[in-house]
Amino acid sequence: MSEARTLGLLLLIAGCATSPLGRSQLMLVGDSEMDKLGVQAFEQLKGQSQVSGDPQANAYVTCVAHAVISAIDPKDIPGEPGPWEVRVFQDETANAFALPGRKIGVHTGLLAVAKNQDQLATVIGHEVGHVLARHGAERVSDQYATQIAASGVGVVLGALGDPASPTNGLAMAALGVGAQGVVLKFSRTQESEADAIGLDRMARAGFDPRESVALWQNMEAAAKGSRPPEFLSTHPSPSTRIQDLQQRIPEAIPLSERAHAQGRHPRCR
Fold first, then answer.
1. pLDDT for position 164
2. What pLDDT digit, counting tens, does each position of 117-127 carry?
3. Active site residue 257
4. Inside any domain, residue 173
5. Considering the domain boundaries, does residue 3 fall inside one?
6. Structural domain contains residue 5
7. Helix 135-151 with 166-174: angle, nearest 10 deg
8. Containing domain of residue 130, as a range?
9. I need a surface site. Which of 38, 215, 218, 265 has the fewest CB within 10 A?
């Protein structure tokens, strides 16, 4: 079979993949491969960055993260079932991330901007939303498609999962952990999806969705300083997000109220 025909078949199969919001996605990599890449990336980050030893910060972030995760249907989480690993990194930038393989990282700098548990749940819900929507796999697939066109299907797919291969390096970069500062940004469409999914999940966990607006107002205020939060560097403007969230909040509030009726009352301090 020719390379062109093989690529065409791969793209045809990938066209059947859809995000949780119904958007068609290019998907050339499976959940098990993404789990391996996510775990590898997280271990690399722990080796390169300082993990916070503050027991209060770790307990607080873990409490919020687990509350959000507990409200997600396990079948909606890509990859193999298992516990999530949550780590707080000693870093003054206001940032957070979630990776395939059930990994969550939060920078201590975010805790100065996310003023309460509901605002922190907004950010964690957003980052987990990227995982639920397989945005990392979609981004890796975009890079693989480019490499397939340049190097051939056999070369690229044969190198998948090899930590030493240049192709795997592209995958790591697509997860935001590449060397030499190579970071490929999520698209605006993916960011909007993560916002919508995150708001839904944090509300289902019993957090107050109205605090999502306050979170982005804090982000906007911080962005006016000399060093804008890193979390904003690849994201739409806070004013745009606030408008979008305000439109979604009326649908999210009943989800939060239903969670309270079911006994979900997060108390993370």
1. 45
2. 999 999 999 99
3. no
4. yes
5. no
6. no
7. 150
8. 10-269
9. 265
Domain count across the chain:
1
Q: Specify the pLDDT at position 189.
A: 86
Calpha distance 31→71 (Å, rounded): 21
Q: Residue 190 falls within a domain, yes or no?
A: yes
In tens, the pLDDT along 42-95 reads 998 899 889 999 999 999 999 999 999 999 999 999 999 999 999 999 999 899
pLDDT of 173: 56
CA atoms of 102 and 87, how far apart (whole Å): 11
Q: Is the four-CA dihedral 227, 232, 237, 242 of positive or negative sign?
A: negative
What b/e string do you get for 46-62 counting C-beta neighbours within 10 Å, with b at 16 or more? eeeeeebeeeeebebbb
DSSP single-letter state for residue 77? S
Task: Number of helices (H) and strands (E) in the chain: give both, helices first.
Answer: 10, 3
With tokens 């509901």, the residue in question is 118
Collect the ranges in the chain with pLDDT lower than 70: 1-16, 147-185, 225-237
